[in-house]
Design brief:
Largest sheet of chain B: 2 strands, antiparallel
Order of helices and strands of chain A: HHHHEEHHHHEEEHEHHHEEHH
Structural class of chain B: mainly alpha
Strand order of the largest sheet of chain A: 1-2
Order of helices and strands of chain B: HHHHHHEEHHHEEHHHEEHH
Distance between the termini of chain A: 52 Å
Number of domains of chain B: 1
Structural class of chain A: mainly alpha
Radius of gyration of chain B: 20 Å
Largest interface: A-B, 88 and 85 residues
Helix content of chain A: 55-70%
Number of helices of chain A: 14
Number of strands of chain A: 8
Number of domains of chain A: 1
Distance between the termini of chain B: 58 Å
Strand order of the largest sheet of chain B: 1-2
Oligomer: heterodimer
Number of helices of chain B: 14
Chain lengths: ~475, ~350
């Protein structure tokens, strides 16, 4: 592997986008969760929902901030490192990204201010509207970015001009390219699942210490409901998405399953060590015929192997193969966790009192993030060597920059993201350890001065202001 | 109806960048002034004045980058590699200062100190990096067949250092006048002093940048009517309103500060920035990558510009509407006890 500007730019993009996706996949779900909590509070007047809202909104604020700043990077990196891609493909996907800014980013950013700081400035109805707007904005953002990505994975509705640049021929086909619906559903469900796993883990952690905490009991049961419904649904949607891959990106599918030969009755490899040089798996643990059945829905079906494609058109195999297995394996564990939780609720003993279940929830807390990143590795590494599938190769898309500046910026990203990520995670874990607390009595009283934009979440008596902070409990 | 789509889009991007400079300018300015606050409590208050709006302000930067990508891809593809180092430096600095808003509230003793420094350092670094981007843009980018063909440090010259210092003073002025408007008591008094100092620095550096631009770049000088030692009045006179707006802005700041006005200095600072912005724009228009690529050369396909214009026409009024509503909601003074209760 030669560390030229191309390879460094690829590493930098992979690192920054993988870091970035962690936050949207959490905040898309969390924004919807907060909207549901606030809606339930307004509807039922049960204060536990408000306590949960005030607890999770603090975690939301930290994660959203990290998502915003790591997202700004993406909107410039397309030009700094992938200027040829930008020049060639922008006339088609440029409007999609522009619409993301116009419909989603401003909406999220503006109403986030009201959501975090406007608790005493607006009435509960309007505050709920602000929360709902933020949640809606996160979904709009997912819509446009997945639309752009789906088009890059399977471009339709465009024409190539004489100078090599692209031009949209049919906007409908660009925005709603054939694989878009499955991809969008897959990503949104992944975000909801990721969030419910975190909510489940945080609640379970509290319940291990205080099994009677009412807020955590509610939140745990909400999370179990999400596992039980969303995780199996995700399996179905993921399978639909996989069928689309077989149809439009057969080389990616062959890498996912590590198929080398084109044949009927492909075996399913549970594990394998693919070798690109030798064009075979050095070893494999397989089940006969099931490979064709899983990928094509018919165990007799003929499925293409990697040798059907010229060596320079094949994606890396081992990374894609293993990332896919990590994603699916975690997905199956999520389904199992959901079934176990529902069974415990049905058995009346209650999941709150079953410590092995609570520990399992804690252990599965980060599983959503790992599965999301693994899934994106499958999608993005699997479509190599192309950046716009079949149209523009990644190697031809890079900027005329030299390796020196790119290695410096990559190193700087690694250092700064390491700091930001570990500190952010520390602060979130500290909040989780403190757990949801009902607002202090004085907090519900009308404020003395109505003017200041109080950090409305109020419920943080443990945060004395002022720099030198003395002893915390 | 035949719309001149590239021209309209050049206008949209220009307005977007101006919005960014004015809005994120004042919250970056608050960060630049952070080290000069007397107490941690003052810093808390300073941060509270911008906390509800900074995220929306920074979205204009995404609109600038995303808009350039979408509307003028050739310019985006030429400029970003040319300004690789300052752009990346700006992004990294914005990350540190952006997360500092929440992290500073969560940090304990050492953590809080670190994020206080990160907010100030990030704001200062981001501003200087933006100054290098601006200066590197004005002094021109070397292109071959529409692609950047210069070296990685082309943007670093004495001229761009001067521009970066000017922007630092200018953002500090925006921040100081914002704080005059939004705070009271001692901090308000301190902000007045910051405003006096940063205004003097801004005025001096703006003058120096203008003089340097005219001497270093003959074609900009020619545009203003200064050619070969002679002055072409027919070129200069129509442009004189631009410096006049700047002088009026400075006068408004001085008068506002003298009469203890709370709002006028901020508006004056806006006028100074508007004048500087237009003054520079006159120099390079219609180039979008000075001085080899015009906005027409760089424009995206007409059907892309048309589709996006429909989006802008429908959505921008809403965006401006709810942005204004958020500012109105958080109007008034922010006092020291405004934070967590």
């Amino acid at each position: 592997m030669e560390l030229d500007a191309l390879m460094l730019s690829r590493l930098q993009f992979a690192f920054t986008v993988a870091f970035h996706i962690i936050f949207p996949s959490f905040t898309i779900g969390l924004a919807s969760f907060l909207a549901v909590l606030e809606g339930l509070w307004l509807w039922t007047k049960n204060e536990a929902f408000k306590t949960l809202y005030l607890f999770w909104v603090k975690i939301f604020a930290i994660s959203f901030g990290m998502g915003v700043v790591s997202g700004v990077v993406m909107s410039y990196q397309l030009g700094t490192n992938w200027s040829v891609f930008s020049t060639v493909a922008s006339p088609v996907i440029g409007p999609l990204l522009a619409f993301e800014v116009l419909t989603a980013f401003f909406l999220e950013a503006s109403f986030l201010g009201v959501m975090l700081f406007g608790w005493r400035k607006v009435g509960p109805g309007l505050h709920f509207t602000a929360t709902a707007m933020v949640a809606f904005g996160t979904l709009l953002s997912a819509f446009w970015i997945i639309s752009a990505n789906s088009w890059m994975q399977h471009p339709t509705g465009f024409e190539t001009l004489a100078d090599g640049s692209l031009r949209a021929a049919d906007w409908w086909q660009v925005i709603f390219s054939p694989t878009f619906p499955e991809r969008l559903a897959h990503m949104v469900l992944a975000a909801y699942l990721t969030t419910s796993l975190v909510v489940g883990a945080a609640s379970a952690w509290r319940l291990l210490k205080r099994p009677d905490e009412p807020e955590s009991r509610i939140a745990l049961r909400m999370a179990i409901g999400m596992f039980a419904i969303v995780a199996p649904l995700q399996l179905v949607v993921g399978d639909l998405s996989g069928k689309e891959v077989l149809r439009v990106q057969p080389a990616k599918l062959a890498a996912i399953e590590s198929f080398w030969e084109t044949r009927a009755e492909q075996p399913f490899h549970i594990a394998a060590w693919p070798d690109r040089e030798a064009e075979r798996n050095r070893w494999e643990i397989s089940i006969p015929k099931i490979g064709s059945w899983i990928t094509a829905g018919d165990s007799a079906a003929e499925v293409q192997g990697l040798k059907a494609f010229a060596p320079e058109d094949r994606p890396p195999v081992a990374v894609v193969f293993w990332a896919f297995r990590v994603m699916v394996g975690l997905g199956l564990l999520m389904i199992a966790l959901g079934l176990w939780g529902v069974w415990l609720i049905w058995r009346k003993r209650g999941p709150e009192n079953v410590r092995p279940f609570l520990w399992s929830c804690v252990a599965m807390g980060p599983a959503g993030f790992v599965a999301v990143v693994a899934g994106w590795i499958v999608a993005e590494v699997g479509r190599q060597p192309y950046v716009v599938y079949g149209v523009l190769r990644t190697a031809d898309a890079v900027s005329p920059v030299s390796a020196g500046p790119v290695s410096a910026s990559l190193l700087a990203f690694m250092v700064i993201y390491a700091i930001v990520f570990s500190v952010g995670a520390l602060y979130i874990l500290r909040l989780v350890a403190e757990g949801p607390r009902p607002p202090e009595p004085e907090d519900t009283a009308p404020p003395l001065k109505p003017r200041p934009p109080g950090y409305a979440l109020g419920a943080a008596p443990d945060e004395p202001r002022g720099e030198p902070e003395e002893g915390r409990p | 109806m035949n719309l001149d789509l590239p021209l309209i889009w050049a206008g949209v991007i220009a307005v977007g960048v101006l919005m960014y400079v004015l809005l994120d300018g004042f919250d970056l300015g608050v960060g630049i002034l952070f080290p000069f606050a007397a107490t941690p409590q003052e810093r808390d208050t300073m941060m509270d004045t911008v906390a509800p709006v900074w995220d929306g302000n920074e979205t204009w930067l995404v609109l600038g980058g995303g808009g350039l990508f979408a509307a003028f891809p050739a310019a985006y593809g030429a400029l970003m590699p040319a300004l690789y180092i300052p752009i990346l430096l700006m992004l990294l600095a914005l990350i540190l200062r952006g997360v500092a808003f929440e992290f500073r509230l969560r940090g304990r003793r050492r953590g809080k100190r670190f994020w206080t420094a990160a907010f100030a350092g990030g704001s200062i670094t981001a501003t200087i990096a933006q100054g290098f981007v601006l200066g590197g843009f004005i002094q021109g980018v070397r292109l071959e067949e529409g692609q950047f063909a210069g070296g990685p440090f082309d943007w670093l010259t004495p001229y761009t250092v001067l521009v970066a210092l000017g922007l630092l003073a200018g953002y500090a002025l925006l921040g100081a006048t914002w704080l005059i408007w939004k705070t009271e008591d001692e901090l308000h008094g301190r902000a007045r002093r910051w405003a006096w100092i940063s205004m003097a620095l801004t005025a001096g550096l703006l003058f120096a940048v203008s003089a340097a631009t005219l001497t270093v770049h003959p074609r900009i000088a020619a545009r203003w009517g200064f050619e070969g030692g002679a002055v072409e009045l027919s070129a200069l006179l129509p442009l004189l309103p631009i410096p006049a707006v700047g002088l009026a802005g400075l006068a408004a700041i001085v008068a506002g500060l003298r009469r203890k006005s709370h709002g006028f200095p901020f508006l004056g600072a806006f006028a100074v920035f508007l004048s500087g912005y237009l003054g520079l724009a006159v120099g390079f228009f219609p180039n979008i990558v000075p001085y080899d690529m015009t906005f027409r050369d760089a424009a995206s396909a007409d059907n892309a510009l048309g589709l996006m214009l429909v989006g802008v026409a429908i959505l921008l009024p809403f965006i401006l509407g709810y942005t204004a509503w958020v500012y109105w909601l958080f109007r008034g003074k922010v006092s020291a006890d405004a934070g967590y209760h």
